[in-house]
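Form 7-S
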Amino acid sequence: MAESNFVDYVKIFCRSGKGGRGSAHLRHDKYIPNGGPDGGDGGHGGSVILKGNRNYWTLLHLRYQRHAFAGNGGNGGSNKCFGGDGSDVIIEVPCGTVAYNAETGEYLCDITHDGQQEVLLQGGRGGLGNWHFRTPTRQAPRFAQPGEPAQEMMVVLELKLLADVGLVGFPNAGKSTLLSAISAARPKIANYPFTTLEPNLGIVSYRDGKSFVMADIPGIIEGASEGRGLGLRFLRHIERNSLLLFMVPADSESIRHEYEVLLGELTRFNQELLDKSRILAITKCDLIDEELQKMLEVELPEDVPHVFISGVSGFGLQLLKDVLWSELDSESNKIEADWLSERIVHRARTAEEIRNEFQAMGDDDIGYDFSPEEYESAEDSEMELEE
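Output:
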């Protein structure tokens, strides 16, 4: 993965701006002996905002952006002068990005469409000047409100590709071959396990100008939930898919067993994946004849539709597209898609899982070069110099 430009997992230390303090100034002008309070309010601190951008397709542009610090609000001044608001920091991400709190694993927000904005950290409110605290019995208040402090958080951004059909199978099951045969995508294809090291997307053309998007992820093996092979890291990219296409080679020892193993690994990863529609494709059928196909049908699972295909010869590909489109266009799938758009359930995370995933990628640093306390003290020193 070192040479790849596909980055789907980053962490950034975010810090909102703190609010400026209000002024406790008393007016002292010539010929005005009792000027009274005229301290202005402090400015609001800047916020850290996540924004969807359809022109991005990975998180590569954020790979080495370790900090996102919003501007602080300015202090209030005399003559009821308000302090300036701190500048916001807008982090642009591709559609399909989910944000988590790296320290607790808490789900924060989900960016699903272009232009959508979600506030990760709200800037601190500015303090009120002493002008607000004048009363008939307290006409010269010599105090004002301090601004609200800044908020800090280590944020994990996780990209989940948006596609209609997700391919699930063991290494060398023919997933990349199928994607290259029915779309313009050209993933790497070779006769050894784990040829695919990163997810690939392809647009599949259908009749009457219709089309749908298919996602190919690296193959998983038995025990992937325990970290074997490439683990379950890339299964996040099929969490948003409407339909899962299981692919098992025709020359397997037991097609039913391999299908059940794949289903079991998905269950350990996210129980919600079991609610998605499933179709079974028996690949590499150019190696068998019709008589052997009928023999294999006896041991196939009864609860899932199946199609015999061959990505090399093109056998059964049109039938497969018909079955996929029929399922995608079904009324039950539309209802489910509408429901998911309103309420997308994300897999529960823990801080330990997030830490282990970054360590597996060789990225176990905390994400900033100095402690927040050091940053705070340095910032206070700069403010004293300005005053």
